[in-house]
Sequence to fold (347 residues):
Amino acid sequence: MIELRVTNWRCIDDLELELSKINVFIGPNSTGKSSLAYAIYFTSKSRSYDPQTLITQLYGYDFSKIARVVEGIPQFPIIIKLEDSELSINYVNGRLEIKRPSKSPWVDEYLIPSKRIGYIQILMLLPKLASEIIKRSETALPPSPASIQLTFTKFIYDLLTSALQIPPFSLYAIDYVRATTGIKVESIEGSLRDVGSYIIKITPLISLMELMFQDPFTKLELPPDLVPDGLLDFAIFDSMTKKIPNNSLVVIEEPEIHKNPLKIMEFTEYIVSRVLDKNLTLITTTQSDIPLLTLGRFVRIGNLRADDVKIYYFTRTPWTKVKEIKVYDDGVIESLPDFEEVVAKLF
Fold:
């Protein structure tokens, strides 16, 4: 078990809970499920990544927009504690002070956001756009030195990629490249005595990547924009988690997206098998009870222990509150708090 405490992060006032191998955050919209999942991912990643760059890539804003707001005033310090390692963000005399965690419970961390299908399609489209720009610039521009041609095409390419930096798109792109190729594309930073500090920002090498699918019936190769969303989502998870290090953290939002109930069950089973095979820690946000029922079946047949699974139900009043949903040794899962209300409205 991993002890977690989060203070003043978005809609979270002060929250404590335990993380296990598989953690499910369920509840109505806008109750803080993704906020808590992102806080865990952010904290683990910030031990080796510049927190100010990271928060912009994750949300598109600085910490003044991420801190919990009371009567228009951001509340500091933001504190996120994983076991005995702590991330702290505070303003002291108008100056931002950041204390980064010294370690993480995980070897590495990967984010699979809810908009992952659209992001993958953008990732695979960008190299084509860059290639087309280069091709057209060679014919559209008057004869000029090669350096001018290169400068022009690089400018257009950089313009395109920067225009598509919709948080957390760039962060997901970095994680996807890193997971599938092993190439490290995080910023590098350090300090030199009597000189100062430095940061090297590295753009994901998306022009080197191409994702293709083979139709099981016709054997034709299909690009991502022609593949059914459900199949594409399977492929995204599989390709991202196939080569990542054991004992990594994986955050996946809404695994039920674009799937019918049977496919949701199948996908949940596949996720669990990958978690067990690579000893991963999984955090998933969902609005469906089908993943919960599937996890209960895994406990019942002995593939998971009851304490391998933590389920938390989220509400807001106005700050995020969580209630642990018990998982019993026989695979039975305690009813969700809104179950009776749903039944009453239906019948």
The two ends are 40 Å apart (CA to CA). The mean pLDDT is 83. Residues 2-346 form a domain with the Rossmann fold fold (CATH 3.40.50.300). The first strand starts at residue 2 and ends at 9.
